[in-house]
Amino acid sequence: MPVAPPTPLAQERAETRTPTHLARERRLRLIAQRLALIVLLLIVWQVASLNAPAFVLPSPKRVWEAWSGLVVTANFWKDFGITFSRVFTGFAFAAVIGVLFGLLLGANEKLGEFFEPVLTIINTVSSTIWAIFALIWFGLSNWTTIFVVFMTAMPLILTNVWQGTRSVNVDFIELAQTFRMSRLQVMQKIYLPTILPPFFSAARLAFGFGARVSLVAETLGASSGIGYRLRQAADLVQTDQVFAWTLTLVALMIALEALILKPIENRLFSWKKRAGDQ
Amino acid sequence: MATVRVQNVSKWFPRRDGESLHVLQNIELDVPEKTIVAIVGESGSGKSTLLNIIAGLVKPDRGCVLLNGVKSSEFTDWRSMTYMFQDDRLLPWRTAAANVAFGLEAAHVSRAERKQRVAETLALVGLSDFADLYPHELSGGMRSRVALARSLVTRPTLLLMDEPFSKLDPTIRAQMHAEVLRIASLMAMTVIFVTHDPEEAVVLANKVVLLNPRPGRVRETRTIDLPYPRDPSAPEVNEQARALRRSL
Ligand SMILES: Nc1ncnc2c1ncn2[C@@H]1O[C@H](COP(=O)(O)OP(=O)(O)OP(=O)(O)O)[C@@H](O)[C@H]1O
Ligand SMILES: [Mg+2]
């Protein structure tokens, strides 16, 4: 017997019910996949460590022990705090300067044209070179790391904000003009919301880069912080310590992304039409 | 109250080849209080330019515009007029209510009053239940209403519209026409709008101004003396619309 095609209404109802259902299923599957991946990596690690001396590849158990030993020391948290305060300071300077100059260069085409090469130059210089310069200029101080983070993060933020100002819809500016809004109001009500999405994605990227290069800077030019501890551990061939620090950092960055940045982004940009919507 | 007088206005736009394009020539237009004026004419006849000159967004090269009897160069009460574009220009990052509030943000209105006026105006256009939706969640007709609300929230006495409903489908368009008429009489507004469509002109306007192109000149001014509401399918309305279409 031929089956009657579903009525449009029934079809619609089925479609409105499935997305949440599918989403939950997908989330569960994702969690299962991640757990399986972690277990798999641990097994591979364990097996590999059986055939290698501990100073080349310590076993998961050994790393765990090193980590448990580390966490209880006061220095662990102190170094942590020092590194992240450097990263945050460098990042904060980068965000403020990047947004201000991005807006300025975006608002003034001639200025933008003139300064564009500076950005290219900054972008081609590697973070290690900035670290060496910083060492020469600031010596063994907080500013060495802060400077390297700044030089890495700032061009990223500046470029994205600058591009963002170019994508401002002139129709909206015209609209603001019909309401006789001031230039400041146009900046605040049209430009700022337009550059917020590119700013945010650039800031996320910049913070990640900044956190990574901060370690390079610290191994070269600091006498405290995670990077310094890493070099110390390496010098003393305490490979388990190196692993413990590394895993802590990875976990922290993932947590930061999932618990802080992603929710903020979802909240800020809830107005955006999602790609899947019709 | 709002009156508009366009006196002997001419406008040229510079062209890329160094010549200038004569867009408007000696335009005269008198809009008494509470009238609804339609500006019609073929594409490129300078309708939008004329509206922009009235709105003070474009300066005339010759002649002047008197708003409430004051030369527009000396006029200060710009917030008593609003301008509606052909597209709705809703800010995608703002909800319907916040888009309506945009109209009030340049004026110095307290937060509490702003909130109340936004609610009132949304109710006026029948969108109270949709205040918290984002533009992409609204239908074309609803978006148009939000744009209208944004123009009305400042309680203008003069409403300027440049082909405001041309992108809507006929049914919704007719609804918007009824809405504009109702609100215009309720708020005692003077309305000047541009349209391509003779029928829209006849349904809404007391007075229709026909522009000739290149350069734009007033060819004729017609008075439409039919009682409101005007049914677009009524024979008198059709008759007038056909007559207007013939002279276009
Ligand atoms: N800012 C400008 N610079 C140069 N030329 C312009 C400018 N604005 C309009 N024009 C020219 O002036 C003429 C009239 O334009 P306008 O937009 O006023 O016509 P319109 O009657 O509104 O046309 P449409 O019905 O297509 O909207 C056109 O030829 C147009 O190219
Ligand atoms: Mg036009």
TrEMBL record, chain A:
Its main location: membrane. One of its GO terms (biological process) is transmembrane transport. InterPro entries: MetI-like, MetI-like_sf. Pfam families: BPD_transp_1 (PF00528). It is a multi-pass membrane protein. It is found in: Cell membrane. Residues 80-260 form the ABC transmembrane type-1 domain. Keywords: Cell membrane, Membrane, Transmembrane, Transmembrane helix, Transport. The chain crosses the membrane at residues 35-57, 87-106, 118-137, 143-162, 190-211, 242-264. Signal peptide: none annotated. GO terms for cellular component: plasma membrane. Belongs to the binding-protein-dependent transport system permease family. This is ABC transporter permease. It comes from Hansschlegelia quercus.
From TrEMBL, chain B:
CDD domains: ABC_NrtD_SsuB_transporters (cd03293). SUPFAM superfamilies: P-loop containing nucleoside triphosphate hydrolases. GO terms for molecular function: ATP binding; ATP hydrolysis activity. The keyword Disulfide bond does not apply. Residues 4-240 form the ABC transporter domain. Keywords: ATP-binding, Nucleotide-binding, Transport. Residues 224-248 are annotated as: Disordered. Belongs to the ABC transporter superfamily. This is ABC transporter ATP-binding protein. It comes from Hansschlegelia quercus. The lineage of its organism: Bacteria, Pseudomonadati, Pseudomonadota, Alphaproteobacteria, Hyphomicrobiales.
